[in-house]
Amino acid sequence: MTAWTSKGLAAIDAFLRDFRSLVDKRRIAEVERMVSFFSDYGLCLANASSTDRFNVLDITGVGNDEVKHSSILAWLLAPQAAHACGTRFLELFLKAAGVSISEKHLRDCYVRKEFVGNESIVDILVCKPGEFLVYVENKTLSAEGVNQADREYRDMRRIGKSVRVPHGNMFPVFLTPGGRPPTSGDPRPWHPVSYSNLAREFETVLPTLHDRKIAFLVEDLIEQYKRWSCA
């Protein structure tokens, strides 16, 4: 075992201990720390054979955890986040969902995770008051709650009205491995999107990601998204 490998394993072990001890309110900050962890990840890939290829989401315990994946996705969708890719990931996500919003309105929007409404808690909210509202329900492998889709839709309408977003600019998005519509309410207003489609969209941006830490993270996300699509 090389000295670098020993240090790398020690860093992974420390990272795992810290990551699992975080409370929900610090998850977005920890995603940024996860990206910093990738500074040594490239060296690991360069020294590993194809059979040794690992996914950092597996070794950090993210796996299929819906809340953690929502936190990572919310971080990527936020134009002001430390990934320094601006609106690119948000644009790709909206394209996958079949939602059209002007790029000029995306630049200064805000993103919230686990947003609490009157009747529900939605995984991701993206909004620019007066312009648009995107409500994202993320289902990796978990089942829907009782009347969940209808409750979230009503909350989206209330919130959109309170921030003066036109009805036609409110977009409920239902993200699942296979891109199915919701079954816990009226599916008609929802924009279903599959993880396989999202993976394809994210793959298009990989050649433009010059920061290797971001590129490694997105590659591992794409791999996980494809696993769900094949499950």
Keywords:
single chain, 231 residues, alpha/beta, 5-stranded mixed β-sheet, 5 strands
Explain this structure.
The chain has a five-stranded mixed β-sheet. Helix content is 48%, strand content 14%. α2 crosses α5. The chain is globular and about 45 Å long. It is built from ten helices and five strands. A hairpin with a 3-residue loop joins β2 and β3. About 3% of the residues have low confidence. It has one domain. It starts with a helix and ends with a helix. The protein is of the alpha/beta class and 231 residues long.
Condensed summary:
The protein is of the alpha/beta class. It is built from ten helices and five strands; from the N terminus they run αααααααβββαββαα.
Content of β-strand: 5-15%
Ends: how far apart?
A: 35 Å
Low-confidence stretches: 45-51
Structural class: alpha/beta
Residues in helix, %: 40-55%
Kindly report the spatial arrangement of strands forming the biggest sheet. 1-2-3-4-5
**Number of DSSP-assigned strands:** 5
The DSSP helix count reads 10
Question: What is the gyration radius calculated from CA atoms?
Answer: 18 Å
Largest sheet: 5 strands, mixed
Q: Give the integer mean of the pLDDT values.
A: 85
General form:
globular
Order of helices and strands: HHHHHHHEEEHEEHH
State the oligomer: single chain
Integer count of domains:
1
